[in-house]
Amino acid sequence: MPNDIDTVVYDVSDRIAWLRFNRPDKRNAMSPTLNRAMMAALDELEFRDDVGVLVLGGEGAAWTAGMDLKEYFRETEAEGLRGIRKSQRESYGWWRRLRWYQKPTIAMVNGWCFGGGYGPLFACDLAFAADEAKFGLSEINWGILPGGGATKVAVELLPFRKAMYHAMLGEPIDGKTAAEWGLVNESLPLASLKERVTEVAKVLIGKNPVALKATKDAIRRVCVMTYDEAEDYLVRAQEAANSFDNHGRREGIRQFIDEKSYKPGLGAYDKDRNAG
Ligand code: ACO
After folding, report:
1. Is any atom of ligand 1 closer than 6 Å to the C-beta of 114?
2. What is the mean pLDDT of the chain?
């Protein structure tokens, strides 16, 4: 059922929340209004029992053309530092929320993805693009550095030379190149994009949700740790996960060792069965 916040829309079906940027006439540029609506939608969806995976897509020809140059920059700058900081908090706020979201998240990049769009792109755990999509750090083309985390995203996801080239030249790349460079997991024709994302979402829905949340957080956390720190963090994270869901772990072992009903190397245990 679409909600009533019109810069953002979502539907939930078969445990997938399809959340979309919805300013197609403005190429889904992120205005302060849209940023507030995104936070509200993320709030609404995060702990719903009927949501297993969240997919972030875009209505129309764009995923998002980045920050709204008029409403996010020009108009908030006119309000002085108070306005600037407020709009920064709103945008960075929902991207941060998305980076640490309770449910697994997938960016489904159907079209244009520029500048500030790299914030939510990186915030999603996985990303699939249309071959036809175009990605760019276009900031240099209108005279600023890639801020709002975009430079950090480039350096996190791309090798040094590619990050430097991407940020300094401001040339857009297509979905296939984005996949080759590691900005997204895969690129495929737009006509097949939703089907592939649905397939991946269904696999995620079949996994233990406590283990998924612990895993996605661990991947982000250990990036900046030494080996020893990571080893320690992972021990603690697993112990914390056990306190939420120890029976799931035991059941996973039981179905393999005792029941021989699946092979963990090849797929997930049936989390809907529990022998206790
Ligand atoms: N901010 C504000 N308005 C925008 C933005 C944006 N980022 N992107 C598109 N729009 C608006 C246009 O002003 C236009 O509005 P209008 O119909 O009222 O004139 C409408 O969306 C359609 O845009 P067009 O440029 O006509 O669409 P087209 O399909 O030809 O081009 C493209 C799409 C390439 C995405 C182009 O709009 C563009 O270059 N947008 C800016 C991309 C960008 O550099 N974003 C900022 C990144 S930096 C950052 O986010 C910090």
Report:
1. yes
2. 95
Q: Are residues 42 and 149 in the same domain?
A: yes
Say how many Å lie between the CA of residue 138 and the centre of ligand 1.
11
Shared domain check, 234 and 110: no
What pTM was computed for the model?
Answer: 0.96
Domain carrying residue 253: 209-259
Task: Output the pLDDT for position 110.
Answer: 98
Domain tally, the chain: 2
- Averaged over 100-126, what is the pLDDT? 98
Cβ(29) to ligand 1 under 6 A?
yes
Q: How far is CA 70 from CA 30, 32, 102, 143, in A?
A: 10, 10, 33, 15
Which CATH number characterizes residue 101's domain?
Answer: 3.90.226.10
Ligand 1 atom closest to the CA of 71, numbered from 1: 2
Domain contains 237: yes
Give the atom of ligand 1 at the shortest distance from the alpha carbon of 117: 50
63 CB less than 6 Å from ligand 1? no
